[in-house]
Amino acid sequence: MPIPPKTLHFLKKLKAKAEPSAIAARLTPRAGAPAPLMTLPKPSAAAINRIWARMTKAGVPETARVELADERTLSEAETYAGNIENMIGTVKVPVGVVGPLRVNGVFAHDDYFVPLATTEAALVASYARGAKAVGRSGGVSVATLGEGVLRTPAFRFASIAEAGLFVNWVVSSAEALISAAEATTSHGKLLSIDPVIDGEIVFLMCRYETGDAAGQNMVTFATEALCAHALDQSPVQPRSWFLEANFSGDKKASFLGTMLGRGRRVTAQVDMPREVVETTLGASIDEILEYGRIANLGALMTGQVGAQAHFANGLAALYLATGQDVACVAESAVGFTRMERSATGLLVTVTLPNLILGTVGGGTGLPSQAAGLDVLGLKGTGHAPALAEVAAALCLCGELSLTAAVAGGQFGSAHKRLARGSKT
Amino acid sequence: MPIPPKTLHFLKKLKAKAEPSAIAARLTPRAGAPAPLMTLPKPSAAAINRIWARMTKAGVPETARVELADERTLSEAETYAGNIENMIGTVKVPVGVVGPLRVNGVFAHDDYFVPLATTEAALVASYARGAKAVGRSGGVSVATLGEGVLRTPAFRFASIAEAGLFVNWVVSSAEALISAAEATTSHGKLLSIDPVIDGEIVFLMCRYETGDAAGQNMVTFATEALCAHALDQSPVQPRSWFLEANFSGDKKASFLGTMLGRGRRVTAQVDMPREVVETTLGASIDEILEYGRIANLGALMTGQVGAQAHFANGLAALYLATGQDVACVAESAVGFTRMERSATGLLVTVTLPNLILGTVGGGTGLPSQAAGLDVLGLKGTGHAPALAEVAAALCLCGELSLTAAVAGGQFGSAHKRLARGSKT
Amino acid sequence: MPIPPKTLHFLKKLKAKAEPSAIAARLTPRAGAPAPLMTLPKPSAAAINRIWARMTKAGVPETARVELADERTLSEAETYAGNIENMIGTVKVPVGVVGPLRVNGVFAHDDYFVPLATTEAALVASYARGAKAVGRSGGVSVATLGEGVLRTPAFRFASIAEAGLFVNWVVSSAEALISAAEATTSHGKLLSIDPVIDGEIVFLMCRYETGDAAGQNMVTFATEALCAHALDQSPVQPRSWFLEANFSGDKKASFLGTMLGRGRRVTAQVDMPREVVETTLGASIDEILEYGRIANLGALMTGQVGAQAHFANGLAALYLATGQDVACVAESAVGFTRMERSATGLLVTVTLPNLILGTVGGGTGLPSQAAGLDVLGLKGTGHAPALAEVAAALCLCGELSLTAAVAGGQFGSAHKRLARGSKT
Amino acid sequence: MPIPPKTLHFLKKLKAKAEPSAIAARLTPRAGAPAPLMTLPKPSAAAINRIWARMTKAGVPETARVELADERTLSEAETYAGNIENMIGTVKVPVGVVGPLRVNGVFAHDDYFVPLATTEAALVASYARGAKAVGRSGGVSVATLGEGVLRTPAFRFASIAEAGLFVNWVVSSAEALISAAEATTSHGKLLSIDPVIDGEIVFLMCRYETGDAAGQNMVTFATEALCAHALDQSPVQPRSWFLEANFSGDKKASFLGTMLGRGRRVTAQVDMPREVVETTLGASIDEILEYGRIANLGALMTGQVGAQAHFANGLAALYLATGQDVACVAESAVGFTRMERSATGLLVTVTLPNLILGTVGGGTGLPSQAAGLDVLGLKGTGHAPALAEVAAALCLCGELSLTAAVAGGQFGSAHKRLARGSKT
């Protein structure tokens, strides 16, 4: 049969449900949608209750309300102002802890308890195993290699010629553009402006240092001011312009971010004695290297951005436990893992080029999220560089543990043991 | 100066901190790491307190304990068994709601209140605005196009010739391999086996239907059985083999997933009247299309996987509110957004090829997460296909709202208004 | 300075040439272009002379005419009918030969003299060195793993629902569609039809076997007939449709081609004794493996499609010498090279997933190109599968030789020795 | 059946050929390969005849010799010294001409006859059609946006710390490193050094201006000297180092090249009146834009590097006719094509970020290749920038013509008309 099996199977399943024409009919727009909720920007017990009244009427069960809009959440509702709209409660995500994780970094140089929020069995146990092996090897060496959040406006001109004249003006006006941008922020610095032309369109890649904040809003406001200055002063005027041209890698995996770095670029390494590998990780160096070679080929053959095993697991859990923007996992969880034989035993290296995170701003000041930073000892001003290095060290632990589990044949069994009942 | 500005800047900053040799010295491994925490797989108040005792001694402040290990969390600790190890409490993430979102889907056909857990200002408001515009347009048409979670073991043989003989055996033994795999699961089905050879290595791309579960564990256990059968029966034996060859796109953006689909592949569309675009979204169709063209070029020039604005924001918030594995955002938040002029006004289409989600298993049964599914009316068996369609409809709302905000020049101001104070 | 050095430098250079406004003015359209040449589809001495008359008048020197439109070319001009329009002569590309290259393949099983047309010093010598090392190792094992040229039409419908109904019709009409396609060709077979939906658009990935021809035209004509049948018979009609949707990977590097294969997918391998590596290639196995690890990281960090050293060099030269479509190098020169330690010494593997080539059709029948196939012993019907295997074996030789050159520190010196004078 | 149709089909075909075990046996290494040809670096009639004597003995037919080693080739054999080894003759590739192509560029500002060497029917005719349409629109506006060939050595140190110290030394020694590099060349300039760290490995992206040469050898020799200086002077010494780390995008499609540019980056544009589109190209603007949207989606869905139709066709033909390194098509034939509606009619833009080409060195001085440059009026010193702009203008013509052909439904028929007989 010349049709792929998955297509045949899915069509059969759909047809078992209804006639094709009936299915098609279900997709037709229907007028008369119910009135949308008013957007309530300020959370409060009253506002929460108002929304629940509407949802209850629509049939959402009372049990849901009890779990989301519990007493404590209602009493602290105002705390969440500036972090959420249309608030109806809180979701409680269990937090496990890993460590102490010994980090020998430029900015992070301590033994850290690392809080991880997740609902996935075996995740914390796996990272803990990696951290244990790392501790027995003297800790993880980590270095930040650069930083800089991008925001990239675009300007469309009448012609290539005008685009060129604009770039010429930008280059000669760089200092003034920087002043305009930096006037909007007390912590941000505009490090560089890189103009990229495609025909009559000019992109300006603006790279900022954002202090201890993740900085996504900071770079937006600063770039808005930069654009305003350019529009005010440039001798050539664009036909249209946009504050962000989908050119920064914001919240998505891209080769630009992976190559040039967005957020902090951090590299981490451990040189692990053979005995630690074998006893703590339960696989031989030969097995791990054999798996490493095949996993690298897998990454290449499937067109991954970078090549690594599961940065996303550790990062998502750390981001969640410390009030980061979890959506940034889409861009931060890319990078490179290498495993090689060394004189000592096994040399493991990870590099994460796009760590978007902070210790001030965003969700970092919320009660339980600030507590997460407190577990690390990294709450507030001055700690973002260390948090980035801890994140990279953590990812290294995860790569080590998962790789050893697959290499040593424990991958299936570990999940079976730690997951809740036989759920498959 | 022939060195890039960002490099010069960062080096200067490092040197301001310490001498290069002193920085280098900080990276040296240090023996004598503190004993790691024992891994405690079963959460309970006692276990939580035991870990806190250790952390408190190490200096973690009592305030952190109060926020994470609150009364309610301690009393419900056992509930989290099978979802976390080394539990120390819960992080409380505020949940906002969007809707009712009118969805005209094959599986989802209703008006949905959609819970979104996030700490990022403006996110809920933005999706709410999109949902409102969609409601005024008759809702979102959505269709699931396919499904199938991948697990891909690898087998290394002595030679290309043996690899070929193994593939020949696999093809002739497909039915027996499927039986072996399916014996491990009551809900999973193995839809297809696609052998890929590179030299002496054979990858078997196994695609499963996983019922209402996200299915990552299910496909692991089933593939483990399939491999056991192959190792037992195949006339040619591999020199090494691995249950997963980093070839499935699991927890990372890859072109394989984007092309072939991992999890559910869903497409969603709305044909929005001009008047709705202008009044609800605050931008003209011309402005939106102009931005769309530039944003598409941005996606291409920066090497995105797919081309879209911010699927990650909506997906991460929905996943978190409904007990999904948030790390899967790394793979699920890829896809395609198109905006085109239509006779009605603006035709907007999104396609998400990799939706990994479920309504049973994982974190979906936890108290507040199950409540999130209850808000949607999609808790438990039979609802995963609808949840996937709601997710795609939600992403469409977000694409619409963000695109209109950038196109209409409201992007910076909306964030300024809704974020907490002047934090930059 | 916040502007990248390369940008500053280039702007300075431009300004040294002229004022920015003067440069901008040069880009303005100018009316009154000279009349274009008439397109002359049939080459002949008379037609060639006619074009030269026009060019000579426009100032093209007589010396150019002598070199391109030499006696022999003029006398054989008609031979080139169906391969060129507006013919003005021939360019003479020097051909070197490599071998005999011992190939132990499924289809190619012999010792081959391999003709390579190139103007780049050291290329032939480098491949020759690889072939020599391979010969001393018993030859290259090669296997074709699959074949199938893609052509992918697209159909846009009024809605997702109609797109779905069309796919349903296509699946149920597959046999008739295949008959329609295959009626246009005596050698082509339509192997599979894979429908891909994005919103209201349907792509049909049609995969063909093309016999001994490269097949680009064959699949175009067959798919045109398939589309005509669909348009004639389908109960739902598209609003627009296109014979090729830029969805086949035709003449460009793509992850689709690299993953799914376009043209022939071939893998080749040699297990080379340590002594051969060291004496023939001039580098130790340790050096080669060390370089291999770094080169692999380089491929990943720079976002290559696949990971290899220079397939393009060997393929372009072979394609040119045997009348292939050299533009296909853009898609064929992707793939994977692996180097690993083995019991014997060094195991080297290459896989090329997209070999577009043939031994009939295109330029393969032209006098000197057919001679190139004759050197290989692979002219005409029945030889395309062997040619593909020879191509892969050749690429392996090149990977081996270049890798050893870089690893052993001979890379610069080899080029210095063989290039023409000191030209830099 | 759970196995993909293409796999089933291919296995069946193989089995029709022989038993699996017999096929497997064919791949076994065989000792006793015939002695390889001695490598003859200096072409001459005698050397050519010597190789033919060997090949003739091995059964290569005399007819092949006559075509490749013709009188003229034998008499001019020495001309090819420094461009080929083991020379056995020349392959004659037919050259067609397109134009005059009106180019309004920064460096190219004239009406050009453009020679294209190809064996593919319809290629020259298609580009000629595009050139005609362009001429009727006032010509193509073109601008070079930057230049710079990369060479990227790698250095592996004992640790991250040492890697950092090396980068610190490189930055402080940049001027001396540049002097060392530039001492090797009279025309090359080292524009920038961009250090990239991954763990203990340092890559130095060295970007050179290469004057009128393509420059691949120039940058190799210069970087060799730079490395020698670094090894001599650096206070930290690498454990291993390599002159090129597969990090430059040399001869392959990569996102690095597409983003940062390798070779010359050129953009070209035409704003074509509606009437010209319709009468010269035979498709309406609506049809072309409709196709453009779908082709763009095709590029994204299949993971192209960039998004364009067939740069490779025009570039390969121009490179071949002018003595460029045709293998560079693998890297040069990437980029971006945009088609949009304008006040005039249709705005078409192409950008090619990686044009590797020259007017001196390589094959540009060979008799018929120099003649190709003479047809353009761009032979020798001072003309490389113009050649790059002509190349981009040419690619624009091809994009226009092919897109219109597919959009207007002439794609299949044009190939049928111009190809040689019914060859499918």
From TrEMBL, chains A, B, C, D:
Cross-referenced Gene3D superfamilies, in alphabetical order? 3-hydroxy-3-methylglutaryl-coenzyme A Reductase, Chain A, domain 2, Hydroxymethylglutaryl-CoA reductase, class I/II, NAD/NADP-binding domain
Question: What Pfam families does the annotation carry?
Answer: HMG-CoA_red
Print the keywords alphabetically: Oxidoreductase
Family as reported in the entry's similarity comment: Belongs to the HMG-CoA reductase family.
Q: Supply the name of the protein.
A: Hydroxymethylglutaryl-CoA reductase (NADPH)
Which InterPro entries does UniProt cross-reference here?
A: HMG_CoA_Rdtase (IPR002202), HMG_CoA_Rdtase_cat_sf (IPR023074), HMG_CoA_Rdtase_CS (IPR023076), HMG_CoA_Rdtase_NAD(P)-bd_sf (IPR009023), HMG_CoA_Rdtase_sub-bd_dom_sf (IPR009029)
Against SUPFAM superfamilies, the record matches this protein to: NAD-binding domain of HMG-CoA reductase, Substrate-binding domain of HMG-CoA reductase
Name its species. Answer: Roseibium sediminicola
